[in-house]
Each structure stands twice: as C-alpha cells, then as structure tokens.
Amino acid sequence: MNVWQRWLRQPQGVWLRKALFQIHLWTGVGVAIYVVVVCVSGSLLVFRPEIARAVMRGPVMVAGLGTPMTDEQLTAVAQRAYPGYQVSNIYRSQKEPKAAAEVWLESGSDKKGVIFDPFTGADLGPSVPMGSRAVTWMLDLHDNLLTGENGRTVNGVGGILLTLLSLTGVIIWWPGIRNWRRSLGIRFRANWKRITWDLHSAIGFWTAIVVFMFAFTGFYLVFQLWFSPLVEKLEARNGAILNSNNIENLIVWLPRLHFGRFRQVRPSLALTLKILWVILGLAPAVLSVTGVLMWWNRVFRKVVIQSQAEAEVIRSPSLETVSK
C-alpha cells in the first residue's frame, strides 16, 4: 500500500498527517484566547454602523440664561476643571444658540472631549456618549488589541497563524474513506467528549473556506504593503481574467468580506448576510474552544492525573516503613 492509498484509507498512520496534527494542535492551543477575543469582537463589529447610529445623540440643550461665555472664558473654565490639560478646540452649534459647547482638551497624547454649559460653565460630562466610546473601544480591541501599532502587528501575525490553522485543519480533517461521512455531522446523544469532537470536526469542515477568508483577509489588512509587488506583477500581465479592474475590485472587496460590509445589495439581503457573517465570524472561536477542550481532556488532564498519582506515591509511606 503506497502513501496515497494509506492517506485515503488510514490517514492517522501517515507521518505527514501526524506532523501537521502536532502543528495544528499546539498552534491552536497557543492562540486560542486571541482567536476568541478577535472573533467575538469582529462579530459584534459587523453591525458597527447600526450600533453607532443607535447610540449617537444630538446636541445637548441647556437653559441658556444670560450671555454666553467667550471662547477665552470657556477655555479658562475648562482648564481649571481639568488641570494639566490644554484646550485644543471649542465647537459651538451655529443653529442652536442654547446648545452646550464641546471642548476638546489635550495633555500629551491623552485627548478628551467634554461638553460645558456656555452660559454657566457647568461641566456636563464627556462629549462622546458611553455607547460610542464602547464601539470605539471594541474597534480598537479588534484592530489593535488596545496596544496601538504593536497590537496591529500582533494581529497580522495572528492572521498568519489562523491561516495556518485553517490549512492544516483541512488536511488533518480527512478521517479515511470509510469514516468521512461521520465527520460531517454531530451526534448530540453521545457523551460530551464525543460531542466536542463532532463540533470541532463538523464546524471545521463546513466553515473551512470562510475561516480561511477571515484569516487571510485579516493578515492582508495588516500587511498590505507585502502584497504590493504581487499586485503590480498581476497588473503588468493584464490578462483576460486578472486585469487591472478585476484586481482593484478584489482589493476593494477584501476588507468588505472581512468586516461584512454589503452596501451594494438590497437592505433585506444585506441584513441577512450580516446576520450570517456574525454567526460565521464566531466559527473560529468555537473551533478554538472545542480544540482546547479536546487538548485538555486528551493531554493536559492525563498529565495532571499522572502528577497527582506521583505526588501521592511520594507522600504515602513505604511498605517497609509501615512494617517497622
């Protein structure tokens, strides 16, 4: 039986599959928390425009009694309220004379927007509502892991690792020609270990292309400059299929696919696609959780049990000591 025949019938015995399985296992365990964080935040951000519109507020109105402060007076009030900060901008509504003024203050790299009553100088709180700040925080978490450019670079590396996971997962999924149908579904009447395995196998199979798309586009969005030489070569060839317009359309669609932005379809279909994108965006997170559970049960749990048994032997008195 040659290697190909063994792969078709008994893939578990092929050395290449064993090696890829180890790569898949330890890469998956290593990036599990990262994948869960990025996938959950990404799924929430599919509806980012709708959430932003829902939490957006209009001008804050005040009583408007008396004469409004000048910009110089409002600047002095703001800087007294926030020592160490300097006023960078003041925004007043031209249409609503009784609207609160928005004051932006800076202290080094720290910036904050605060609204003040321009008549009394009262501090009315942050200019950006809590909901808007939560959306911005979620976007920063997904794009930069809350750590700026360093986090964005880590995100790009994470995209590479998730791409590796999706490719190795497709290869090691194959259970053999006799068992492949069993790996397409989930037997919920089995024990939890079997259900976990079935979830990992079935979800991995049915979402393989989508997981690869999320991983690759995430990697591309961080390291776009790496792809510039390839794009230039493809454009230089100007073939019937990969001409300049098609390449540009592909580049435009990559971020749309990643974030689930469907602007050129009718609203009802766009909503359906967004809901589907939310569900599919959680697939890598489910795969990570089920993968860690399988690793815990098959590897880590055995190590813990063995360590406890060895510790018990050390603590237990020997037969010779007992006889004495």
Question: In words, what does this structure look like?
Answer:
A 4-stranded antiparallel β-sheet has the order 1-2-3-4, covered by helices on one side. The protein has 14 helices and 4 strands. By secondary structure, the protein is an alpha+beta fold. Helix 4 (48-55) runs antiparallel to helix 6, helix 7 runs antiparallel to helix 9 and helix 9 packs across helix 11 (244-259). The protein is elongated and about 95 Å long. 17% of the residues are buried. Helices cover 65% and strands 7% of the residues. Strand 3 and strand 4 (123-126) form a beta hairpin.
* Mean pLDDT over the full residue set: 87
What's the helix count? 14
Helix content: 55-70%
How many whole angstroms does the radius of gyration measure? 29 Å
Strand order of the largest sheet: 1-2-3-4
Q: What's the order of the H and E elements? A: HHHHHEEEEHHHHHHHHH
Distance from first to last alpha carbon: 62 Å
Q: Please tally the β strands and state the result.
A: 4
Percent strand equals: 5-15%
Low-confidence stretches: none
- Decide which structural class fits the backbone: alpha+beta
Tell me, briefly, the overall form: elongated
Please give the largest β-sheet.
Answer: 4 strands, antiparallel
Describe how the helices and strands are arranged:
Elements: H1 3-9, H2 15-30, H3 32-45, H4 48-55, H5 71-81, E1 86-91, E2 101-107, E3 110-116, E4 123-126, H6 130-144, H7 148-173, H8 192-206, H9 208-222, H10 224-237, H11 244-259, H12 267-281, H13 283-315, H14 319-323
Antiparallel strand pairs: 1-2, 2-3, 3-4
Helix pairs in contact: 2-7, 3-6, 3-12, 3-13, 4-6, 6-7, 7-9, 8-13, 9-11
